[in-house]
Amino acid sequence: MTSSPPVLLDVTDAVATITLNRPEAMNGLDVATKDLLLETVRRVADDPEVRCVVLTGSGRAFCVGQDLKEHLAGLTGEADVPLSDTVEKHYNPIVLALSTMPKPVVAAVNGVAAGAGASLAFAADFRILVDSAGYNTSFAGVALSCDTGSSWTLPRLVGRAKAMELLYFPRTVPAQEALELGLATQVVTQADFAGAVAELARRLADGPTVSYGSIRQAVAYSASHPLEESLAFEAEKMALTGGTEDHLAAVNAFVAKEKPVYRGR
């Protein structure tokens, strides 16, 4: 009997759902999972038919980050998987592709998100949490620095002081507190979770994709560039979106007092 792959991909009606699929390991990230996750994220990023990406987990966890059993084998020399190599080979390119793709990304946090798993959720534009979920940065708890972009994303979500507290002193931040901190867009019950994710994904996939992607890139650009350069980047993106079919459709619909239908181009 063939085992199920550690990462699943479903593309339906322009929504790509990427599911981490190691429920028995709480979706811990071993090499096979990281290889396939990177391949999958890059695939949906480059697919013009995909207009929204949802990242979620199977079972009771979203993702607990690095598979520590495999990591321990690397520390003891039983396996050739040094942590520094996997950061550069896997975590950095995964989060870069996830953060910079020109289309919206939703993290559907179905359970605990820890370490690199929490970092992956922080890289999304929106985070819908089931009310039993929570975040734990975890890194300092095993005497490691932070990775997968959390040094960049977390302070921008909660501010530097709170980010330092959460990184220095790891604890599980429950869903309701995550909502108050800005680490969750929405918190829902388990019964409402799938519907809430589907509703947001549908709204995003039906929207002006080039506009969303340009806004996403402009906000990221402005975080590390001065005002003058950010204004120039905005002008580039305004020129790009001003020439899209969706912009013309939106203007025509506004004049006709109708609801626009976007094609994502």
From TrEMBL:
UniProt family annotation: Belongs to the enoyl-CoA hydratase/isomerase family.
- Pfam families referenced in this protein's UniProt entry, alphabetically: ECH_1 (PF00378)
Q: What is this protein called?
A: Enoyl-CoA hydratase-related protein
The top of its lineage is: Bacteria, Bacillati, Actinomycetota, Actinomycetes, Propionibacteriales
InterPro entries with a match to the protein in the record: ClpP/crotonase-like_dom_sf, Enoyl-CoA_hydra/iso, Enoyl-CoA_hydra_C
Highest taxon of the lineage: Bacteria
